[in-house]
Design a protein that fits this description.
This protein is α/β, with parallel strands linked by helices. Helices cover 39% and strands 14% of the residues. The chain has two domains: 139 residues, Aspartate Aminotransferase, domain 1, CATH 3.90.1150; 237 residues, Type I PLP-dependent aspartate aminotransferase-like (Major domain) (Aspartate Aminotransferase, domain 2, 3-Layer(aba) Sandwich). The longest helix has 28 residues. The structure holds pyridoxal-5'-phosphate.
Amino acid sequence: MPLNEDFISDAFPALNGDQVFLDNAGGSQVARHVADRLTQYLLGPNVQLGASYAASAQNGDMVHEGRTALATLLNAARPEEIVMGATTTQLLGQLAQALSQDWVKGDEVIITNFDHEANIGPWTKLADKGIVLRTWEMPKAAHSPDLDDLKALLGPRTKLVAVTHASNIYGTINPIPEIAKVVHESGALLCVDGVAFAPHRAVDVQALDADFYAFSVYKTYGAHFAALYGRYDALLAAGNINHRFFTRAKVPQKMEPGNASYELAYSCLGVIDYLEAFAAAHGTNTTGRAAIEAAFAIMADHEEALSERLLSYLRGRDDVTIIGADVADKAIRVPTISFVIDRQSSDAVVREVDKTGIGIRFGDFYSRGLVDGLNLSSGDGVIRVSAVHYNTLNQIDRLIAALEEVRT
Ligand SMILES: Cc1ncc(COP(=O)(O)O)c(C=O)c1O
């Protein structure tokens, strides 16, 4: 189904300028619906929550509505399973702090060499208290990790496995339900970084069977904010990192020191408003979870077409190496596409493309283990083009023309 471009350009005023946004894995544009919710909160009474007067109770309800919206977005069983915060990096740091209160010297955590640092660093810091780190490595030249390699690393002391849902370099989707099964059979917890996946597909934490799942709202058409899902009993068991007199039963507030931004929490309702309006503009009049699933299903088809347009061009060049799966299949990848060009520095290519008004990016994108492992000669990482549903085939064609211009 062709996307309704009038609807999209009205929903994202920023798309109507001269800049083409193909660095969406860095951050997406914000839907008008989100800005409306934010304004509604900020122009209402701004008071501290938790008091007995009416305005305080009303603001408390609005923040709770924001938390509930995030629960709906992730299909969590209840709003208390959502911890809100500024960024995924901060939330995963808080999670590591809370969980490790009960871990002792010699306990083990499995990280990967293909995650973003946000789901590596917080766990590696625990080495200071004697936690042993093991690394699940991507097999050479593969884009999907091997479950047998994970099984070989799991042991009776493994407390947690930290893995990404989709790589922010490869764009490949990892089989989280299968990973969860293996991890749970060994008695460990699973913490999934969903940042590179959530802007592209409906997340269902219950179907994924993740114990913890984090994503960044600001890459998913919302404001600069993030959420961490924790299965209720797993959150209940975690330590308290808030005021010292909070008990462990205070879920999720014990994980939100200093509170999350109230207005940004409320603005998350706007992401659902947008997805509902998107579904309606494409012929599906539903609300809530059904609208979210319908909207992302339509987006996935369009994204697959965008991926195929760029990948078919890249596959046709004998001087290009695609870093990741070279197929567009929506079951395999999201439209985050990385590549390198023989004898051309990624830095120089991207700066030339900048001049055409198209924003792409080069580097390691903080997935340093993955990019270092590629042993690239240039030292300036990969070129990454990261599309989302509001990009058009025409924009991909313009990018291809720009890449042709800088071809040597
Ligand atoms: C895959 C992935 N995980 C985590 C992060 C960190 O997100 P945040 O900026 O919310 O800390 C990013 C940011 O680029 C990312 O791409």
